Amino acid sequence: MPDQAAIGPIDFVLLEFPGDADTTACAEALMDLIERDIIHLYDLTVIRKGLDGSYSGVDLTDVTSAGAAGFTAFAGAQSGLIGDDDLAQAVAVMQPGTTAAMIVFENTWAAPFVSAALDAGGEVVASQRIPATAVVDALEQLEAIR
Question: Which domain of life is it from (predicted)?
């Protein structure tokens, strides 16, 4: 089917920060990716996990404390893709006393490539995200044996 509309791959990341972290630079880097149309932001939800294991979402329209304040520009970035089960899974991997940003985004930079592949009759038959640390470790091991 020629000229199929395509979107880039959709990813999510959960970034955990110490409770008092300054997230301003992280939020600015995210905004830069959005403004340069490298990604399209669907959702950004901030979660706090207390020392006792309790958790709560953070209202980004009313944040002045450390940890989440850098993300206030993303208040309202809620497509509805993040549900209660997603939040529970995120909290399960968070350390007590931390704040986390759960971000769902489209890799818009890949859309032209995806469109060309679809137009040529191609389809994704496998896909997997490889953590950057795993790649760095593998490259270091390869370098060590050379």
Answer: Bacteria
Cα 102 to the center of its chain, rounded Å: 6
pTM above 0.85, yes or no: no
Sign of CA dihedral 18, 24, 25, 29: positive
The answer to whether the CB of 71 falls within 8 A of the CB of 23 is yes
Q: Which two tokens stand for residue 109?
A: 């930079």
Q: What is the pLDDT of residues 86-124, one digit of tens each?
A: 999 999 999 999 999 999 999 999 999 988 998 999 988
Q: How far apart are CA 109 and CA 8, in angstroms?
A: 7
**Strand 40-49 relative to strand 10-18: parallel, antiparallel, unpaired?**
unpaired
The answer for residues whose C-beta is within 8 angstroms of residue 59's C-beta and 6 or more apart is: 75
Structure confidence by residue, pLDDT tens digits, 35-69: 999 999 999 999 999 999 998 887 777 655 556 77
